[in-house]
Write a structure and sequence with these properties.
By secondary structure, this protein is mainly beta. The protein contains 1 helix and 13 strands, in the order βββββββαββββββ. The chain has one helix at about 75-95; strands at about 20-25, 30-35, 40-45, 45, 55, 60-65, 65-70, 120-125, 135-145, 150-155, 165, 170-175, 180-185. The protein has a 4-stranded antiparallel β-sheet, with no helix packed on it. The two termini are about 40 Å apart. The relative contact order is 0.13.
Amino acid sequence: GRDKEQDIVLPGDKVSRRHLRIERGLGNVYRVIDLGSKNGSFLGNYRLLNNVSEIWEKTDTIRIGNYWIRIEAAEDPDEKTALLKAREARQQSEFDTDGGSAAAPPPPPPPPPPAELEKIGVSVNGSVLRVVPGSSTTLPIEIINRSDLVDHFKVEVVGLPANWVTQPSDPLYLLPSKRDTTSVTFHP
């Protein structure tokens, strides 16, 4: 926004004091939320609804007044070095000790799920969650609407005492091919 207290100050007469919030979620997924600005915010050609979170794809540009914002990945020199070393190690391991033929090809990927199961995607980090009694931990959950229709998704935890879990009270409203993140907090 244009207020000097904002993290990113955009001075301009078409920018509200508190215009837009940018959030970074799991796996560097970015979400944008128009904070009820007077002139609106645009994600590509789509005007954002007030106070509704939308996924900001790296290929999309945001327009706020006369400003255009996009995501550009920064290069990490340490990551680049690690990738080069991993590639060299992989190339070396493809040959046997005699320098002979390549190793057996990797197994084929599993078959895709039936079409009726592809309308929703759910992603969590890890398959095991450990919580020490008396403490709490939050599990972020990413929901993907893979259908061609707007849909509502509600996350519920089943099989645990209700006082051990704080779950989202509001469903996620997702446009086709969009994703959003919610969370469940465990506190036994």
